[in-house]
Design goal:
Helices cover about 15% and strands about 45% of the residues. The chain folds into 2 domains: about 70 residues, OB fold (Dihydrolipoamide Acetyltransferase, E2P) (Beta Barrel); about 150 residues, Trna Endonuclease, Chain: A, domain 1, CATH 3.40.1350. Strand 14 and strand 15 form a beta hairpin. Helix 2 packs parallel to helix 3. The chain has about 230 residues and is of the alpha/beta class.
């Protein structure tokens, strides 16, 4: 996924009210929209290098959007709205080796009245649901983690994926790791014990879990490498 406009480098001042960030540019401080509603644990230290995009749409209240934060020399993609675009590019270009040469890839497909999954894929008459979770947390050296806060919605998705398997679908949950240099992935059990329990149940029920790391630059973000998942 390529950024359509050149990103602007700045320094993080603070994040507040979940959706706002103050960013210091060379001669001014601007307010940028924060498109990540998670805790963003470990990312929000004042002075962190950030990259923001500018949108000149007159209908937008905030002209800037926070896209990337640099932490400990690693770039981290924080715009959760791009996760599905990155995943779609990966699926379309066979970058996720477990799901290649698909006959069709449909985004945002309802499974039932309450839940829709990020992708419905058809391959050789097999229907496959893929749910994507954006990962920005890394507390230990070279290890990415999810979630960064309690996620009842995430647990609900796991339970619904189990229902889909019972109805004949093949199901994947893709942890899209937007953190440079990490080498493995694990569930943050200490942050959300309930999610960890549902993860184990879903795994035993046949849900396939994948973790893929992204290559991140101020020009583009693309899927780069599969990571091992630690239980």
């Amino acid at each position: 996924m390529e950024f359509t406009k050149k990103l602007i480098k700045g320094k993080l001042v603070k994040r507040y009210k979940r959706f706002f960030t103050d960013v210091k540019l060379s001669k001014e401080i601007v307010i940028a929209h924060c498109p990540n509603t998670g805790s963003m644990m470990g990312l929000l230290n004042e002075g962190n290098e950030v990259y923001i995009s500018r949108n000149n749409d007159p209908k937008r209240k905030l002209k800037y959007t926070l896209e990337i934060i640099k932490v400990k020399k690693n770039l981290i993609g924080v715009n959760t709205h791009f996760a599905n675009k990155i995943a779609h590019h990966g699926l379309s270009n066979n970058l996720i080796k477990e799901i290649v040469n698909s006959d069709s890839i449909k985004p945002e497909v309802f499974f039932n009245k309450e839940t829709r999954f990020d992708f419905l894929i058809e391959k050789n008459k097999q229907k496959i649901f893929v749910e994507v979770k954006n990962v920005t947390l890394s507390r230990e050296n070279k290890i990415a983690e999810f979630p960064d806060s309690i996620t009842s919605r995430g647990s609900k998705h796991l339970k619904t994926l189990i229902e889909a398997i019972k109805k004949g679908y093949k199901c994947y949950l893709l942890f899209l790791v937007q953190i440079e240099s990490v080498e493995s992935f694990k569930i943050a059990r200490d942050i959300d014990e309930e999610y960890y329990k549902n993860y184990l149940i879903a795994k035993k029920s046949g849900v396939n879990f994948l973790a893929y790391r992204c290559k991140i630059t101020p020009q583009e973000i693309t899927i780069e490498k599969k990571l091992n998942i630690h239980q």
